[in-house]
């Protein structure tokens, strides 16, 4: 099973702009055999949050082999040409290690910050991904869209990967699953997607026709993860910082349909996660592989968890996957 490590980008004034903990985790994940380090995106986050694209560049420079992925970039907030150019150059600088994961976004504050209205987000998303994909794969692109018009545009250099970096898309409703099959190469779940819902959603995603030029149909599960000597040790280390994170999510996701899942108890959270002893985590990995997952992205460190605990868990998961 291919594993990804979702890095904690929460910053405090004392941490910025070093990202030292994330670099240490990324290097250890590389040594442990993880497939990707994975970054998310957030704006208007009062405690602090490191910007996604510059953080990816920094982490690419501090690692050698591990894939660098996003889950995900809020595509409607970006000018497509800027995004295509930046990610293409990052693929070149990293030696062809980029996987670009996107999401629609859900926070009204973020859309307002970028001058985007929420009803526009689907049209902007599709337009953005079409332009990005074409600029990555075509010698010259002209495009007249609702939000973007370009004439005889091209990228130089184009991405190092051929024919292009892989694209992921995250979301849970049928329209997102269809769009992912049509425009992208992999579907990423939410961290709070229920195990009971996954088989039907995976089957639905795989049932939709693949769009021309897509590169497959990966299923990538995002999961809370913590591996410790015993399940009691795992809960004792993880529960308080994870509960603090979920409490914060209830405010951030007040406009999202899944907000209620962040008020659930420990047993509900553990039932959709990889938390426990090595044997328990190995069993959960096998469970998700049988379900049809091609990879699992683990969020090991909620804000506030000590670095030493994170590093031990990364090593433990690395031993399970090798």
UniProtKB/TrEMBL annotation:
GO terms for biological process: alkanesulfonate catabolic process. Pfam families: Bac_luciferase. Keywords: Flavoprotein, FMN, Monooxygenase, Oxidoreductase. GO terms for molecular function: alkanesulfonate monooxygenase activity. Residues 17-294 form the Luciferase-like domain. PANTHER family: ALKANESULFONATE MONOOXYGENASE, ALKANESULFONATE MONOOXYGENASE-RELATED. This is LLM class flavin-dependent oxidoreductase. It comes from Kribbella capetownensis.
């Amino acid at each position: 099973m291919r594993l990804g490590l979702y890095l904690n980008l929460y910053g405090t004034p004392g941490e910025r702009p070093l990202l030292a903990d994330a670099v240490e985790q990324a290097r250890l994940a590389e040594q442990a055999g993880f497939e990707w380090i994975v970054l998310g995106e957030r704006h208007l986050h009062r405690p602090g949050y490191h910007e996604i694209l510059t953080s990816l560049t920094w982490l690419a420079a501090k690692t050698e082999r591990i894939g660098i992925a996003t889950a995900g970039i809020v595509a409607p907030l970006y000018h497509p040409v800027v995004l295509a150019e930046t990610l293409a150059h990052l693929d070149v600088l990293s030696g062809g290690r980029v996987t670009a994961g996107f999401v629609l976004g859900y926070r009204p504050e973020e859309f307002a910050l970028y001058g985007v209205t929420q009803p526009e987000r689907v049209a902007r998303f599709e337009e953005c991904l079409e332009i990005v994909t074409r600029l990555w794969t075509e010698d010259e692109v002209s495009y007249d869209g609702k939000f973007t018009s370009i004439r005889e545009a091209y990228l130089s250099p184009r991405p190092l990967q051929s024919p292009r970096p892989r694209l992921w898309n995250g979301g849970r409703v049928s329209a997102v699953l269809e769009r992912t099959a049509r425009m992208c190469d992999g579907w990423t779940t939410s961290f709070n997607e229920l195990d009971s819902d996954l088989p039907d959603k995976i089957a639905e995603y795989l049932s939709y026709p693949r769009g021309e030029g897509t590169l497959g149909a990966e299923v990538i599960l995002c999961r809370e993860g913590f591996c410790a000597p015993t399940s009691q040790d795992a809960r004792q280390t993880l529960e308080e910082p994870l509960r603090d994170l979920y409490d914060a999510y209830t405010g951030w996701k007040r406009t999202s349909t899944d907000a209620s899942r962040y008020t659930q108890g420990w047993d509900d959270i553990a039932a959709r996660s990889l938390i426990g002893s090595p044997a328990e985590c190995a069993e959960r990995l096998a469970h998700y592989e049988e379900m049809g997952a091609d990879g699992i992205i683990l969020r090991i460190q909620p804000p506030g968890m000590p670095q030493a605990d994170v590093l031990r868990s990364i090593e433990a998961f690395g031993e399970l996957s090798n």
